[in-house]
């Protein structure tokens, strides 16, 4: 069974950092790219970024709103993807989902349950 | 303001058919595949349609997708109360080098 489980969310002050983890199982991790998508309270989906698999050099793409502040990385030995979030802003408050990219860039075929990040002073 | 445009809400009676539209541009829908997601209240999104009109395993054929030019449409037939959810379209935008989503359409089954 394919599973993705996010962890690491919580409350943090503006300007601080937080690292989210996406622990995966049930599929061949090194074959797939992994995406992060967030959803602010009461709002729609917003793509954060993704990391390609090893065959594509584990390269990354980011939304303009997080580029330079957020970094996605992956640990092949543990089948985990990380989202390092630095310089957090109040507008980063959201539920963060990780998902498995199932084909084209906009296709996520399996999703985690999400983890809430609250940025507030 | 979302790059892809969806109507905020749509409603229909049980058993009826509804369509949800998603409008974009040549940099996204016009030249890239469209995916559709269903998000039930309090849950993570679920893939309904990928590559414009393909259904993942387990998605009933009541759900269909189509694309024409810079617009895409999700169709749902035989509406059930369990279909009440938010529906999102998504596509890669080649100009932004980003995945873009519509603002979401809330489906109410009356």
Describe the structure.
The complex is a heterodimer of chains A (121) and B (110). Chain A has strands spanning 3-7, 10-12, 18-25, 34-39, 45-51, 60-62, 70-75, 80-85, 94-101, 108-111, 115-119. With 121 residues, chain A is an all-beta fold. In chain A, strands 2, 4, 5, 6, 9, 10 and 11 form a seven-stranded mixed sheet that branches. Chain B is built from no helices and nine strands. Chain B has strands at residues 9-12, 18-23, 34-39, 46-49, 63-68, 71-76, 85-93, 98-101, 105-109. In chain B, the strands form two sheets. In chain B, strands 1, 3, 4, 7, 8 and 9 form a six-stranded mixed sheet that branches. In chain B, strands 2-6-5 form a three-stranded antiparallel sheet, with no helix packed on it. The mean pLDDT of chain B is 97. Chain A binds chain B through residues 35, 37, 44-47, 50, 61, 63-64, 97, 99, 102-109, 111-114, and chain B through 2, 32-35, 37, 39, 43-47, 50-51, 56, 86, 88, 90-92, 96-104.
């Amino acid at each position: 069974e394919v599973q993705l489980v996010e962890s690491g969310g919580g409350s943090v002050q503006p300007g601080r950092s937080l690292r989210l983890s996406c622990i995966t199982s049930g599929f061949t991790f090194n074959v797939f790219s992994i995406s992060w998508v967030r959803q602010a309270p009461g709002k729609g989906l917003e793509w954060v970024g993704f990391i390609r698999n090893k065959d594509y050099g584990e390269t990354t793409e980011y939304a303009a709103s997080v580029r330079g502040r957020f970094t996605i990385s992956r640990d092949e030995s543990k089948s985990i993807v990380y989202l390092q979030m630095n310089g957090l802003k109040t507008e980063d408050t959201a539920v963060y989902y990780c998902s498995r990219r199932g084909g084209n860039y906009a296709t996520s075929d399996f999703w985690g349950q999400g983890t809430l990040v609250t940025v507030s002073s | 303001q979302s790059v892809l445009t969806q109507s905020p809400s749509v409603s229909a009676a049980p058993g009826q058919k509804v369509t949800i539209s998603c409008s974009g541009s040549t940099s996204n829908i016009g030249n890239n595949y469209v995916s559709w997601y269903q998000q039930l209240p309090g849950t993570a999104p679920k893939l309904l349609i990928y590559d414009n009109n393909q259904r993942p395993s387990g998605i009933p054929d009541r759900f269909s997708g189509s694309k024409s030019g810079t617009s895409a449409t999700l169709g749902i037939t035989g509406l059930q109360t369990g279909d009440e959810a938010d529906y999102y379209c998504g596509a890669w935008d080649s100009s932004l080098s980003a995945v873009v989503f519509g603002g979401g359409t809330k489906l109410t089954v009356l």
